[in-house]
């Protein structure tokens, strides 16, 4: 397309030239309260690349969307002209013998797991937000309970194809688990909230479904006890797949230890873990609210990463800080990996949220971010990220990948 | 125009002290190569900093003067990633070898980059913990070097690579800034620069302090050795084990030629007449290991193993591993020279690729010994030749190159653990498109706009790729002197 055509062709027509289905946006398409002008759904990577190239030429600010289950993560973009819907980028290429799968970004995670389960395998990623796509999982970088043993999402990704802001398609990694050729750019896109490019396909390493599982749960009367139990379980050689903490109100904390493995050994392992926690009960399935975020979908959500030795204390501090702000909190997450989420109710105002987050940052080592705000706080004055070491390097990476700041501008740390 | 590197020497002496700067040509030449001796060059100057501040000051000086720098750990690398630059500063971390903290409550160790890999495990062992990545050179290779190469090891099938075990880095960027990425906790806010830095081969800066995860030592470890008449039968056993849902800590395989070499070198006493031996190691909770071990043993038998040995204790385990661990050096017993290749194929393609390698060997008359991490399809073919014979090294290099082509053809990778460095930079375009490489270069330039951090490594350049790749002609110097093993 020549410069002349660019200026004369209506944008909607230009955007659909590569095969994307384009429509006018409606208020239901709003991202962080901003209603875009267009919604485009490319049928494949080539069309997505052409679409992004056109958007780049037209200077349209673009936000990626899968099933839209995490559109409220990060700060609201400062401007949104185009929502790029990935839902047509659906494909599953499962190399079962290699325990590897290549998946289109728009594939619903649940569909993928169903396919894999039929072959006795799984992607060891527990979704914390139900109903999302593979691309959405990558963009938010969320990892559920089993991250303790199998690693966070980023560790399961062995290859990725993305489209840059300028429409150039680039891959990194590959289709084998062991591979150190080139930079692992998939790491950058994981958790980047779509600010560095559009992920169109992801290759994952898989794990066999375990023969058996047990959950050993117990209620600790206080944070110190929960911390002691966590340390004992992790240090016991029981090799738990997950150690989850649930503290939906101030007071006792529930610890749930997930064990997976051979049928023959699971009973003895569960018994050994139960002996480390007073009053423990063994179950053959996960408890209610397993692998979910705390609180309600409209709550403000903090993500808290701490060294392992501070996890239970972190949960306690959240309740303390919430109480001081005359509000309440629900906390849950991986005690084993040191990553918790805290939900503050919709009624908590910006000042309260900010005070809780700041208080935690002062009291704990690690990171505390406001991952998602209640709708009313979308545009509130909030320090969502806290101090972000390496921010200048992050800005430099963004500058190289998206110099015109067209991809979800403002959504990420430091206004990236 | 960059300054000549010699102009930096007085300032370097101020920063690192007189004993921290090496200018004498003979002493500089001791750093001329890493584990790949056929890529060699004398560094312009060598510095041996003792602190992050010194590293930062040296790099800042390089940045201000436009002089390239090359980071180097213990020099055990196998891709010439630490090949010095004749007009550059070689920054060696060997004097930064303090273990700063063993923090059991948080399951972390904090170390300086020059600390040897195995020292971390030694320091954690009294507490019942260990550091999982175990590259074969772990007695001497540095943790900083492991960060640069994203090193693996025999047990990475189950435990992953260096990147899966690092939670924090202090990094001196190519502009001389000191930045902390992550720490003792997971999921640092912002882009995962930490994850992308690991494996960046010294092109994004120098890690000056490293925080790694410590794992609880497994309750039980069980090891078996199974002998098969053919590689196909051994390969079938590997497939059966993996598809049965058993995840061993390690699955290693050797062919007849490498068994012969190991026998000649260390008298490993593997079952006579074996066309392939398989080593399977399981670890974890005792009850789990026992159940899976019986299963794996049965699967080996079903696949036609004519002899199965199991290790009853640590000594017997060491005996089983002895042949495998000595295999690289052992081929020196049966061949005057050899090339160590490092390629990866999807595990299911292993039988086909091994057959094609055998054909290549038969067609060219060049012997190839196969030693590999079978569980994850990581091949280490050893291409044997007589360097005194005319054109033998060229022929061997050709066979070695064709093996990599086979890996790419089957959807694999040109390197599973040795890295790209100089050695494979020119093969990157066979695996990645120009747009892929350009995008990687964009990322690199975000860290290193001046292009001074380990230039001419990892990504292909016209100057570099005009040259012919060399071949390995002798045993790794560290192996020769007995301080390292390769496997």
From TrEMBL, chain B:
Q: Which GO terms describe its molecular function?
A: FAD binding; oxidoreductase activity
Q: Which organism is it from?
A: Streptomonospora alba
The keyword Flavoprotein appears for this protein: yes
Record flagged with keyword Oxidoreductase: yes
Highest taxon above the source species: Bacteria
Name the coenzymes or cofactors required.
FAD
Q: Which Pfam families match?
A: FAD-oxidase_C, FAD_binding_4
Keywords annotated in UniProt: FAD, Flavoprotein, Oxidoreductase
Protein's recorded name: Glycolate oxidase subunit GlcD
Instruction: Pinpoint the FAD-binding PCMH-type domain residues.
Output: 38-217
């Amino acid at each position: 397309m020549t410069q002349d055509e660019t200026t004369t062709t209506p944008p909607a027509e230009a955007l659909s030239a590569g095969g994307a289905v384009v429509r006018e946006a409606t208020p239901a398409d709003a991202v962080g309260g901003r209603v875009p002008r267009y919604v485009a759904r490319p049928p494949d990577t080539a069309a997505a690349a052409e679409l992004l190239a056109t958007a780049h030429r037209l200077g349209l600010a673009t936000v990626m969307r899968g099933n839209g289950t995490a559109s409220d993560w990060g700060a609201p973009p400062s401007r949104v002209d185009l929502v790029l819907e990935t839902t047509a980028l659906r494909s599953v290429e499962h190399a079962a013998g290699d325990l590897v799968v290549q998946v289109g970004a728009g594939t619903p995670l649940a569909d993928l797991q169903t396919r894999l389960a039929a072959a006795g395998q799984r992607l060891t990623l527990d979704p914390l937000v139900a109903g999302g796509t593979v691309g959405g999982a990558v963009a938010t970088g969320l990892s559920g309970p089993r991250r303790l043993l199998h690693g966070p999402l980023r560790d399961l990704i062995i290859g990725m194809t993305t489209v840059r802001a300028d429409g150039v398609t680039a891959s990194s990694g590959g289709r084998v688990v062991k591979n150190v050729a080139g930079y692992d750019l998939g790491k950058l896109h994981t958790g980047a909230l779509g600010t560095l490019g559009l992920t169109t396909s992801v290759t994952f390493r898989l794990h066999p479904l375990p023969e058996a599982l047990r959950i050993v749960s117990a209620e600790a009367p206080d944070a110190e006890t929960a911390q002691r139990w966590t340390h004992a379980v992790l240090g016991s050689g029981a090799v738990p797949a997950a150690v989850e903490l649930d503290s939906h109100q101030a007071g006792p904390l529930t610890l749930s230890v997930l064990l997976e493995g051979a049928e023959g050994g699971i009973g003895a392992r569960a018994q050994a873990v139960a002996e480390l926690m007073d009053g423990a009960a063994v179950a053959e399935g996960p408890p209610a609210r397993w692998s979910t975020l705390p609180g309600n979908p409209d709550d403000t959500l903090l993500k808290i990463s701490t060294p392992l030795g501070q996890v239970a204390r972190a949960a306690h501090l959240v309740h303390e800080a919430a109480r001081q702000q005359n509000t309440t909190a629900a906390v849950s997450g991986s005690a084993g990996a040191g990553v918790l989420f805290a939900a503050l109710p919709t009624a908590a105002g910006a000042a309260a949220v900010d005070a809780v987050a700041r208080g935690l940052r002062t009291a704990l080592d690690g990171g505390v971010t406001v991952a998602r705000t209640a709708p009313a706080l979308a545009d509130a004055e909030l320090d969502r990220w806290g101090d972000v070491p390496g921010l200048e390097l992050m800005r430099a990476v963004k500058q190289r990948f998206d110099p015109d700041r067209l991809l979800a501008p403002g959504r990420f740390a430091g206004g990236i | 125009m960059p300054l000549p590197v010699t102009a930096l020497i007085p300032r370097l002496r101020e920063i690192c002290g007189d004993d921290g700067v090496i200018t004498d040509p003979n002493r500089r030449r001791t750093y001329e190569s890493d584990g790949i001796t056929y890529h060699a060059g004398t560094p312009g100057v060598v510095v041996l900093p003792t602190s992050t501040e010194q590293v930062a000051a040296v790099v800042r000086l390089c940045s201000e003067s436009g002089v390239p720098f090359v980071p180097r750990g213990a020099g055990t690398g196998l891709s010439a990633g630490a090949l010095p630059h004749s007009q550059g500063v070689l920054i060696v971390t060997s004097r930064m070898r303090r273990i700063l903290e063993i923090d059991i409550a948080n399951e972390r160790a904090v170390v300086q980059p020059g600390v040897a890999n195995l020292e971390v495990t030694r320091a954690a062992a009294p507490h019942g913990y260990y550091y999982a990545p175990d590259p074969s050179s772990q007695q001497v290779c540095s943790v900083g070097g492991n960060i640069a190469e994203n090193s693996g090891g025999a047990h990475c099938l189950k435990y992953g690579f260096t990147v899966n075990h690092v939670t924090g880095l202090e990094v001196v960027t190519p502009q001389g800034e000191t930045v902390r990425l992550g720490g003792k906790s997971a999921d640092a806010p912002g882009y995962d620069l930490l994850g992308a830095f690991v494996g960046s081969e010294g092109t994004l800066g120098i890690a000056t302090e490293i925080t790694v995860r410590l794992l609880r030592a497994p309750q039980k470890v069980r090891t078996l050795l199974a002998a098969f008449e053919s590689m196909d039968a051994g390969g079938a056993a590997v497939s059966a084990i993996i598809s049965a849902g058993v995840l061993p800590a390690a699955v290693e395989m050797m062919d007849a030629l490498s068994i012969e070499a190991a026998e000649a070198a260390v008298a490993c006493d593997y079952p006579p007449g074996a066309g392939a031996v398989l080593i399977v190691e399981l670890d974890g909770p005792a009850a789990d290991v026992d159940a899976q071990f019986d299963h794996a043993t049965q699967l080996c038998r079903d696949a036609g193993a004519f002899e199965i040995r199991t290790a009853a204790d640590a000594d017997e385990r060491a005996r089983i591993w002895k042949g495998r661990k000595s295999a690289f050096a052992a081929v020196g017993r049966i061949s005057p020279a050899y090339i160590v290749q490092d390629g990866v194929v999807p595990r299911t393609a292993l039988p086909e690729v091994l057959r094609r390698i055998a054909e290549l060997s038969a067609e060219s008359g060049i012997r190839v010994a196969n030693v590999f991490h079978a569980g994850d399809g990581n091949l280490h073919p050893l291409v044997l030749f007589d360097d005194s014979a005319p054109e033998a090294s060229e022929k061997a290099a050709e066979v070695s190159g064709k093996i990599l082509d086979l890996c790419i053809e089957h959807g694999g990778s040109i390197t599973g653990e040795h890295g790209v460095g100089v050695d494979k930079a020119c093969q990157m375009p066979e695996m990645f498109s120009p747009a892929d490489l350009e995008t990687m270069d964009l990322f690199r330039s975000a860290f290193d706009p001046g292009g001074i951090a380990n230039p001419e490594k990892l990504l292909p350049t016209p100057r570099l790729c005009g040259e012919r790749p060399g071949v390995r002609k002798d045993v790794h110097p560290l192996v020769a002197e007995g301080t390292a093993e390769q496997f």
